[in-house]
Amino acid sequence: MQHKSRRQFLTHSAALAAAPLLAGVAGSAIAQAPERKLGVALCGLGSLATNQIAPALLKTRNCRLAGIVTGTPSKAEEWKKKYGIPAKSVYDYQTMNRMADNKDIDIVYVITPNALHLEHTLAAAAAGKHVFCEKPMEISVERCQQMIDAVKKAGRMLSVGYRCQFEPNNLECVRLAKEKVLGDVKIIDANFGFAMGDPTQWRLKRDLAGGGSLMDVGIYCLQTARMLTGEDPIWINASEAKTDAVKFREVDETVMWQSKFPSGVVANSVSTYSANGLAGFRAATTRGWFGLEPAYFYNGNRGRRSDNTEINIPVADQFALELEDFADCIINKKASRVPGEMGLSDVKYLMAIYESIKKGRPVSLA
Ligand code: NDP
Prior knowledge:
Layout: H1 13-31, E1 38-43, H2 47-57, E2 63-69, H3 73-83, E3 90-91, E4 107-110, H4 117-126, E5 130-133, H5 141-153, E6 158-160, H6 168-178, E7 185-193, H7 206-209, H8 213-229, E8 235-241, E9 254-260, E10 266-272, E11 278-285, E12 288-292, E13 303-305, E14 310-311, H9 318-331, H10 340-359, E15 363-364
Helix pairs in contact: 1-6, 1-9, 2-9, 4-5, 5-10, 6-8, 8-10
NADPH dihydro-nicotinamide-adenine-dinucleotide phosphate is lined by residues 44-49, 70-72, 75, 111-114, 116, 134-135, 161, 163, 202, 208, 216.
């Protein structure tokens, strides 16, 4: 995924109109500044943890990087030095249970390959920690349910890393849909993909990834349709295409699917691991349209409306926003807007898409 330069100023009326939304998300944490920042332990020090999450935690007001879980000893040494993490807060996947004695750690952020989220969530819950888990939550509905049950049993909170639920340009589009600013949303086109490099990585292995582009980036398109409609799909028809049957032997390369929602809204989507330049959505409405291109990047998401208004709201860091919100929910005992149940339901719809591909016909969810 590409990184675009951050925008510094509100430049347009659309951005100004949406500013209260942004202030609402960030402001909740400011208003309730805790005496102690909640300690976050990152579990799995890969690309996302290193390049996005650790830097984001330096910007959060109510939580901080307090520990790490890694299977790579050289990373442990590097991170201890770089972030001043004490030796007592460094774990590997086998010693995570010892976190129960560590009062500096409140939250475990699971950032390992998809099919390891269950194992690491169970370990964190058993140690009495709250869990923030990356998307997709897991690779089956049953495994998601086990995560929900374990965290509930521990009396802790579970949330899923859906950063677009906090990204102000995406939220502005939800506002346009809800308030029918350009009329009713009728048709949604949402697509996301990137050209997969390293052919040896876990994303191409079914056991660790659960699926391919659909699980990894198609999930953003599914989220867009659910966010804009406020509804869940009741009918899905899907198909798969491959241009490289060797590289994508175990997982899907490109998936195209169509969903129907209870109100009659239709969503069309493509996810792919073979092309760049596909990372946006457009909602066709009764009086025009609105959309973002890009919609799903870490920075620089922006778009337009059919009334020629730009959608371009600056955001400092989506990851900091979602982590601040989770910490705020824990501190103030509020329900998360992205609970484990949402992660589970997305996995249910992803599985319905795979079922449609396998059966070669539409799947009804009503
Ligand atoms: P990486 O491959 O870069 O990192 C995964 C890390 O998990 C590894 O570095 C390793 O850390 C640890 N790990 C433990 N067991 C294994 C194993 N068997 N194979 C490979 N790695 C293992 O992946 P990403 O950081 O890109 O993705 C991690 C998760 O985050 C995924 O669920 C992905 O979907 C999600 N993600 C979310 C994004 C978002 O925008 N919300 C963006 C990118 C990813 P160590 O060496 O420390 O043990």
